[in-house]
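User: I'm writing a tutorial on reading structure tokens. Could you give me a worked example: one chain, its sequence, then its tokens, then a sentence or two explaining what the tokens reveal?
Assistant: Sure. Here is the example chain.
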Amino acid sequence: MNYRRKLTALIIVGTLVIGPSIWSMKVEQAAPIKQDKVLSDDDIQTMIHELWALPKEVRNIIFLLFLESALGYHFNLSEIVVSISSPLVITPQFTTLSGISSLAVSPDGKTIIASSSDKTVRLWDVKRGHQLHLLQGHTEVVTSVAFSPDGTTVLTGSEEYSGAARLWDATTGKQLQLLVDHLYPLTSVAYSSDGITAIAGCKDSNESEAILWNSSTGQELKRLKGHTNYVTSVAFSPNGATVLTGSADQTACLWDVKAGALVHKFVGHGNWINSVALSPDGKLVLTGSCDKTARLWDISTGQPLHRLEGHTHWVTSVVFSPEGTTVLTGSCDKTARLWDVLTGELLYVLKGHNKALTSVVWSPDGNTIFTGSGDGTVRCWIRSGKTLDSMNKNGESRNLLKQRNKSAEELYMKKLYPVLGR
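And here are its predicted structure tokens:
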């Protein structure tokens, strides 16, 4: 077999096991391609079988060694690189006396707002950790909070049957307006990117709709009808032209704001959808469900791309990182998880809360994660400055390169070197 057969084998193995590599590689020098060894079909299958049986990190190292042998290249391995390049640590947490129901971060990243089951909303200074304002006035649980794009106002939605949506001054904490005076509770609220329009999802099986209104005047603009059970979550696209709704009917819907018409329906979850999000570039849809999964979808076709599995209880909250490369999910299993958008692979697990997570958000610069829980705390996770080559997905201390490079070379010599016949 000539070098083309070796390249065929390399492509097969590479396609199956490497995906988007987590290694940073540099080609130092190239030697002429060797053409004197032959790989049979059985050899190829043996390599594939052996590689699949190994941990991913070991497979990647072996793959590079295989490249060196098959093609005559020499690679240097640098530190492991993932979407978040340093471990996350907890700073002093923000605490309430009741469970957290919803979180939002101001556009400048300096203030975090949290609603809780005690019918109140609190604003904290992120850097100093002290409470700025206590927003009181709702008579039922506040289910959702949102900052206006300019950070000057706060929108809240609650389970009240009257006066469920309210507008507040973010600087003074004073209530400015009752925006919606519906006869049914609200589950989720959001602002458009220009701050002119707001949307709310309704928690009423007889009124399975989302409502658009002018955020300044409270004038109703449109009602989006099509779900067969109540709307649980709402989100605007980055350009404000479309909105996404998730529902207890197990579907998510994309709507044209101007026409109020349904564009796509995303079907596939096996239980309620609790949370929805749109990627920063507006090309992807993210959904989290009571079926314990989160899913990524192509917004233009409505087709599923990745099924994010790993949580052991309901997925309650989902969000994209600001740059759009990572997904953050929160769950009733008391953890938050980070996932790679391109591959759908689990990157990291955040543990620490002792009750279900209800809301997860990123800071605008992408360096901080906030998690809210039924344990009454908001935890702030920030980069520590260390590299992740000493951590694994579960946060366990480990120097991946030092401990696994040796075993990878040993496995290569034992399993693949004889197959290459070098």
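What the tokens reveal: The helical segments are 3-17, 41-52, 56-71, 400-420. The chain has two domains: 3-80+396-420, 88-386.
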